[in-house]
Amino acid sequence: xxxxxxxxxxxxxQQAIAQQRALAQRVRAANDFGAVDFVAGVDxxxxxxxxxxRAAIVVLAFPSLEPVAxxxxxxxxxxxxxxGLLAYRELPVVFDALENLEREPDLIIVDxxxxxxxxxxxxxxxxxxxxxxxxxxxxxxxxxGRAALPENRFGAWTPLVDKGETIGAAVxxxxxTKRAIHPxxxxxxxxIDLETAMDFVLRCTKRYRVPETTRYAHLVAGGATLAFGKxxxxxxLF
Length: 238
Hints:
The chain is an alpha/beta fold. The chain has one domain (13-234): archaeoglobus fulgidus dsm 4304 fold, CATH 3.30.2170.10. The protein is built from 5 helices and 9 strands. The protein has helices at 13-23, 87-99, 123-131, 194-203, 212-221, and strands at 38-47, 52-61, 67-76, 107-110, 135-139, 157-162, 165-171, 184-190, 232-234. A 9-stranded mixed beta sheet has the order 6-7-8-5-4-1-2-3-9, sandwiched between helices. The protein is globular.
């Protein structure tokens, strides 16, 4: 996997918006990949009153979903919090974590939006285009658009629509029994279509609302130590 090293993150919000609009033209919404033997989850959190970004990436064997590799990185935050521009706060540290990952994934599921974004270029699209890698956005809430609640059946889904365009799907991954359990929101990132993206998310989901890719990445980002492989941690602050 080729990790870009010449990216310029020193942009104003206005420049970032213009860049998103330009890069969005490079998103491919069709399946363009071979066998998927390893899937990765990406999660980003923040420390020290949101001044330090912390990225965790966990690679799972597919379809067994056994974790095989993981990496953590930390980096000082330099971009302001602007809804719709979170990729500019989070992707620099994600690339740091990717540089130290011992196993290359065939597909990446990002805890965030893909095409379900005001400019159709959320963090999953951004990561996929820059890596030229199949990616999926899997978010826990809606950023833009509307979707009806899917029926109470695993795998049921309804379209997420914005301005007459289907930009993703609300997908039922856990049944609503005694308490309200919201669906998750799946959208394409890059080199995959929506139907296939939903299929991968469902096949990566076990007992929980979120797929195992997201669950493991969130655990590692929160400080959990997984009992496998060699821990790879990038602690340098830029």
